[in-house]
Amino acid sequence: KPKGFPPGPPRYPLVGYAPFLEKHLVHKHMWRLSSTYGSVYGIYLGPERTVIVNGWEACKEALANDDLNGRPINTTLTLRDDGLQKGVMFTEGELWKEQRRFTLHHLRNLGFGKRSHETVIHEEASELINEIENANESIQLQIKLGVSAVNILWALMGGTRFHRDDPELITLVDKLNQMFRAGEVSGSIVDIFPFLHRFMPKTSNFGTVMDGFLEVKKFIERAIDEHKASMDTDNPRDFIDLYLKEMQKNNNNEESTYNDDQLVALCTDLFSAGTETGSASVSFAILLCTLHPEVMRKLQEEIDTVVGQDRLPSIDDRPKLIYTEAVLTEVFRLRGAAPLTVPHCAVRDTVLQGHHIPARTMVMINLYSIQMDPEYWGDPEVFRPERFIKPDGTFLKDERMIPFGKGKRVCLGESLARMTLFLLFTALVQKFTFSMDPAIPVTNTEGIAGFTLGPPPFKVFAKSRV
Ligand code: HEM
C-alpha cells in the first residue's frame, strides 16, 4: 500500500514554503532540503503542493514513469500564449506527442545535429573567431555566443543567417538572456497569485520575463509572415515552410493540431530553449577552463595533436578527443544548463518511491542532486575532468550523466546542443588562450538560476595562439 503524499518543509499560510526558497540557486536549496525530508518530499509553493525528486534512484524512477510526463499549467506561460496551452515544451497528451514527433522528424531531415549541419556551425565558429580576434579589449562571451547559437538554429528553422552586429538580433539575444535569469523554474509569485500579473511593474522580474517572451514572439511572427509571403509549397526551404505546408494539407480538418497559434508557440519554444542554453553551456565551459589553466593547456595539447591548427575540429575528430569529451562532460556535471529540467506533472494518480502522487501534482526532478552526490562522486565540488577517463585512457560513460533528461520528455534539441557545444568550444580553445579580466572578479562559478542556470557575469582576454 503506497505511503501518503510525501511530507516536507513547513507550509505557511497562503505562500507555503515559496518565499523561503533561495531563488538564484533553487536546485541547490531543494537538494539540501532532501537531507532533512528524504529524496522525495512535498513542498507547498503557494496553495499548490509540489513534489521534489532528488538522487539517482528516485529521479531515474520518476523519468521512467510515463504518468509523470505531463506539464503543469503555469500562469506566466499561459499569458505568453494568450491564454492557450500551445507549443511542445509546455503541452502534454496527443497534441504534445504529435507536435514533438513532427518537429523532430523534420528537423532531423533538415540536418539537425547531423554532419550536414557542421558546415553551418563551422561558419559561425569562424565568424566568432574573427570577431574575437578584432576585439582590442576583454570580451563578454555570452552575447556573442548567443548570436552564434541563434544563427545555428535559425539556419534550419528560418533558413536565413543574421549579420553578427545586427542591432535587433543583439537586443533579442540580450532580452532572452535577461528573461532566462529573471524567470523562476519553480514558478513565480504571479504563478501563485495569478491576479497579481496586472500590478507587476515592467521593471519587475515578471516584467522582464514577459518582455523577453513578447520580443521572441514578435520575431517569430514576423518570420512566419515573411515565409507565408515568399514560400513555394513544392520546395520547402526550412522548418517554418514545412510546417506551413502541413497546415495547408490539414486545412479542412477541424481536428488538426497544425495551426498558426501552434506554429508561433512551437517556434517560440524551440528558439527560447535552443539559444540561451547553448550559449550558457559554452560560456560555462570557457569560464571553468579559464579558471583552471592546466585544463586549458591539456585541452590545447590534445587538439593540437589530433587536429593541428590548419583546420577547425570536426565531429569526426570527436572519438579521438578523449580529454575534450571528459572536460565537456565535467562541465555538464558541474553546471548543467537545466538542473531542475522543465517541471513535470502527474497526468493521473501514480506512485513514486512508494509515495502517493495525486493527479495534476507538479513534480520537479533535480538533476543537480544526481550530479553533485558526494557518496557517488567523492569530490563533486571539484572540477576534475579526469573522473571521466578510465585507467586505460578511454572515455568513461556514466549512466548518471543525464543533463538533457531521460525518457519521453528528454530534451528535443540534445543532438544539436551536443554538437554545437563541441564544435564552438573546441574551435575557441584551439585558437585562443583565455584569461580572466580582473575588472569583473568571479568569486564563485555556481551561476544564476532562473528558468535555467546561466554563468555569473565574466569577461575574458583572448590571446591568439597562432
Ligand atoms: C546545452 C544545452 C541544453 C540543455 C542542457 C538542455 C536540457 C534540457 C532538459 C533537461 C529538458 C527537460 C527534460 C525534461 O522535462 O525532463 C529540455 C527540454 C527541451 N529542450 Fe533542451 N537543452 C539544451 C538545448 C536545447 C536546444 C538546442 C533545443 C532546441 C533546438 C532544445 C529544445 C528543448 C525542447 C523543445 C524541450 C522540451 C521537450 C518536451 O517537453 O517534450 N534544448 N532540455
Question: What structural category do the secondary elements indicate?
Answer: alpha+beta
Largest sheet, in brief, is: 4 strands, mixed
CATH class (first level) name:
Mainly Alpha
SSE order, one letter for each helix or strand: HEEHHHHHHHHHHHHEEEEHHHEEEE
Strand residues, percent: 5-15%
Structure description:
It is a single chain. The protein has a single domain (18-464), classed as Cytochrome P450 (Cytochrome p450). The protein is built from 16 helices and ten strands. It has helices at 26-37, 56-64, 75-80, 93-109, 115-134, 141-157, 167-182, 189-192, 205-230, 239-249, 260-291, 293-306, 322-335, 367-371, 374-377, 414-431; strands at residues 40-45, 48-53, 344-345, 350-352, 355-357, 362-365, 432-436, 448-449, 453-454, 460-464. A hairpin with a 3-residue loop joins strand 8 and strand 9. The mean pLDDT is 93. It binds protoporphyrin IX containing FE. The site of protoporphyrin IX containing FE has 27 residues, from helix 11 and helix 16. This is Cytochrome P450. Keywords: Heme, Iron, Metal-binding, Monooxygenase, Oxidoreductase, Signal.
Topology (elements, then pairings):
Elements: H1 26-37, E1 40-45, E2 48-53, H2 56-64, H3 75-80, H4 93-109, H5 115-134, H6 141-157, H7 167-182, H8 189-192, H9 205-230, H10 239-249, H11 260-291, H12 293-306, H13 322-335, E3 344-345, E4 350-352, E5 355-357, E6 362-365, H14 367-371, H15 374-377, H16 414-431, E7 432-436, E8 448-449, E9 453-454, E10 460-464
Parallel strand pairs: 2-6
Antiparallel strand pairs: 1-2, 3-6, 4-5, 7-10, 8-9
Protoporphyrin IX containing FE is lined by residues 88-89, 100, 153, 269-270, 273-274, 277-278, 281, 336-338, 341-342, 403-405, 409-413, 416-417, 421.
